[in-house]
Specification:
Elements lengths: L8 H15 L4 H16 L13 E5 L11 H21 L6 E4 L2 E2 L2 E2 H9 L19 E4 L2 H7 L7 E4 L6 H12 L2 E4 L7 H7 L8 E4 L26 H14 L8 E4 L22 H5 L3 E3 L19 H16 L6 E5 L19 H14 L2 E4 L11 H4 L15 H6 L13 E10 L2 H11 L10 E5 L8 H9 L5 E7 L23 H14 L4 E4 L10 H7 L6 E4 L4 E6 L5 E6 L2 E2 L3 H10 L8 E8 L3 H12 L8 E3 L2 H15 L3 E3 L3
Parallel strand pairs: 1-2, 1-5, 6-7, 6-8, 9-10, 9-11, 11-12, 13-14, 13-21, 13-22, 14-15, 15-16, 16-17, 17-19, 20-21
Antiparallel strand pairs: 3-4, 18-19, 18-23
Helix pairs in contact: 1-2, 6-8, 8-10, 18-19
Length: 677
């Protein structure tokens, strides 16, 4: 094991020389001269934590790593190893300030990272007074290669943690260790061209010290699914995969070394065997944020009734029990008093489902719902980086954007509704079919990051009413984007929350008796979490509560949710429209979602098919997923072109919709009424 040396350039040089004296006596003098000369030239370029206000943004273009020969294992390893190391280093470098920016992600015809870098470097358009671009005064300096990157930021890492490709889960454990100990994760591989050889083993390379290892010195697996879990007194689960996570729990989560409120659920090194879809869908560039916040990583099946395809020989339910053990450890570390963000999503094209070669018996949606149910049972929520818009970069950079304390948005009053002809002189809704269309799904920072370069700049935005279901917690990972949306919004842009509030949860998973964890009721913890985000972003309605495979949200729980959504709630299931009392002395309207619609033509048929003429005012709501303003406009035009039913339809924003429900309930003198009204 190399000597324990600090991370400064001089100490690294000293330790390197000691290793060389031991191994290479003959070439000692020439190597010292060469290394010292290189050190002198490089030390002038090392970036330290003490930087001026207008320090450069270091931009590293790694888009070449999107290209890989999938039939060549060595090329897969090259792409995986380099992208993982770069993203981890970015998390360390950007932990306390925005320094390193990557160019990698592409979507909807845009080079996404490049688009946002340029956008945030310009003054915000159409604002009064003008708002200076966040990055306008920051010069840029390109990073040319990995060697230069490692030199520039040598003071931000203290060596490496080695992981075992033969136990793919160890890469997530290594990422956890890396974030806590300021290390770089490196796959153990003695091939002459491997990153391990170049950075650790090669005498003429960097000789980075190995500070932690999840693989034996000879390359044998430490986690073998037998005996005791290495480094603990725990009996093996029979699963090398799960044992690795138990080691992480015992050595990092329980001792309080990790930030237990920050989790990352991302595909492990099984990708090297099954690199499906676009290369960027490995989500390696997403991991910088969790590393920066010293969080924990995992990737386990939510199913207890079948062995996962990435480890089919494990005892039945081992993954499920490991999943629960990690979330329970995080819950215990927060004493049940905090909410736990878990960024990522079930890798349904690769594991745990019936998709393709996965070979499971559960569908992708069922697996998503089971995953969310488990998280909810332990005070967790999902920041759902789901395929195929799962990739994101630079969240560790964006986290430093200085947000305003509050971003107000206008909402309709009763007088406004009367002026618009939507209610009569008695404040009862007029005899129309009111339709609110939910613009989702934006329960993932990655989805917002990838979709909005195209959607937010669509020529039809502003011409039609849109209910943008941007979960407000996503601003933690994409703060400058959320600021930008509010500064450039039009009167027809309205913001609501997506799935259940400030994060994707099943509300009944927080309500005792909790079906999986059996833990005490924690809905009040969730409510306080949501109130903070809803206040900052002036959101007062839930665009869609997701129940998934959890019990259906009941009236008592809706009444509690009204504490952060007093204007309205769209529920998942149920047979009635109605109101519940909120804690502010008023009534909160709610209504179950009618249907999802997939195309403008299908949506037209569904919406017109729901129109009734004999029931008084109706209130119908529909969900769209990743629809552009142009596509929404096509739907609206198709519906209103119908000379009979279409003329009855009035498209409205969600806040108008919920207010109309409340007014109708008051007019009828009831708390619930027929869902088809």
């Amino acid at each position: 094991m190399p000597l324990h040396c600090g991370s400064s350039s001089i100490r690294t040089f000293y330790c390197t020389m000691k290793d060389l004296v031991h191994h290479y006596h003959v070439r000692l003098v020439s190597l010292i001269l060469l290394a010292f000369g290189a050190l002198l030239s490089q030390s002038q370029r090392v970036v330290t934590a003490q930087e001026p206000e207008h320090a450069p943004i270091y931009v590293y273009d790694i888009r070449a790593l999107r290209d890989v020969d999938r039939g060549n294992p060595n090329d897969l390893q090259r792409v995986w190893d380099q992208t993982l190391l770069i993203s981890t280093l970015q998390g360390l470098v950007n932990r306390d300030a925005p320094r390193l920016y990557l160019l990698f992600v592409q979507a909807f015809g845009y080079e996404t990272d490049e688009f946002w870098l340029e956008t945030f470097s310009k003054d915000a358009p159409n604002t009064s007074p003008p708002v200076k671009g966040w990055l306008a005064d920051r010069p840029r300096q390109n990073v040319n290669d990995l060697d230069e990157l490692l030199t520039l930021f040598a003071d931000y890492y203290d060596g490496v943690v080695l992981y075992d490709e033969n136990v793919p889960a160890t890469v997530n454990v290594a990422l956890t260790v890396a974030g806590v100990e300021n290390l770089l994760p490196v796959r153990f591989d003695t091939d002459p061209d491997s990153l391990y050889t170049l950075l650790v083993a090669n005498a003429s390379g960097r000789r980075l010290p190995v500070r932690a290892r999840l693989v034996a010195e000879d390359g044998a697996s430490l986690f073998i699914g037998k005996g005791l879990v290495p480094g603990t007194n725990l009996q093996s689960t029979g699963s090398p995969k799960v044992d690795a996570y138990l080691w992480m729990i015992e050595n990092y989560v329980k001792p309080g070394k990790v930030n237990a409120t920050e989790g990352g659920y991302y595909l492990d090194a099984f990708w090297l065997k099954s690199p499906n879809g676009a290369v960027q869908n490995h989500c390696l560039t997403n991991r910088d944020f969790v590393v920066a916040r010293r969080g924990f990583f995992f990737d386990l099946s939510p199913w207890e009734d079948e062995a996962p395809n990435d480890e089919p020989t494990q005892p039945l339910g081992a993954d499920f029990r490991g999943f629960n053990a990690i979330m329970r450890a995080a819950y215990d570390a927060t004493e049940g008093k905090k909410i736990i963000r878990v960024s990522g999503f079930t890798p349904w094209d690769t594991k745990y489902t019936d998709h393709g070669a996965c070979g499971g018996k559960h569908g992708g949606v069922d697996t998503e719902w089971r995953h969310a149910e488990i998280l909810s049972n332990y005070n967790g929520y999902l920041d759902a980086d789901a395929l195929g818009l799962c990739a994101m970069a630079n969240a560790s950079f964006f986290q430093h954007f200085p947000l305003e304390e509050r971003y107000a948005q206008p909402k309709p009053t009763v007088d406004d509704l009367r002026a618009r002809g939507l209610i009569d002189e008695k404040n009862r809704p007029v005899d129309k079919t009111f339709v609110a269309v939910y613009g989702g799904d934006y329960d993932s920072a990655a989805w917002v990051y990838q979709a909005t370069p195209a959607f937010w700049h669509d020529p039809k935005r502003g011409a039609i009413v849109i209910n943008w279901a941007f979960n407000p917690n996503l601003a933690d990972r994409f703060a400058p984007g959320f600021d930008y949306f509010r500064r450039t919004m039009t009167p027809n842009d309205h913001f609501i929350s997506g799935d259940s509030g400030a994060g994707y949860i099943n509300p009944m998973g927080y309500v005792a008796p909790r079906s999986i964890s059996k833990l005490p009721d924690a809905l009040d913890v969730w409510i306080e979490h949501c109130k903070r985000y809803f206040k900052q972003w002036d959101i007062s309605g839930i665009g869609f509560v997701i129940d998934g495979s959890a019990p259906t949200t009941d009236r008592a729980t809706l009444t509690r949710l009204a504490a952060y959504a007093p204007d309205g709630i769209t529920t998942h299931r149920g047979e009635t429209i109605g109101v519940v009392q909120n804690p502010y002395g008023g009534k909160t309207g709610y209504r179950p979602m009618n249907f999802d619609i997939s195309t403008p033509e299908q949506g037209r048929d569904v919406i017109l098919g729901d129109v009734r003429f004999d029931r008084g005012p109706q209130f119908n709501t529909y969900r769209t997923i990743l629809w552009s303003p142009t596509k929404l406009n096509q739907l609206f035009e198709l519906v209103q072109a119908d000379e009979h039913r279409g003329k009855r339809v009035q498209f409205v924003d969600a806040y108008t919709f919920w207010t109309l429900i409340r007014l109708e309930a008051e007019a009828l003198g009831v708390e619930e009424f027929d869902r088809r009204l």
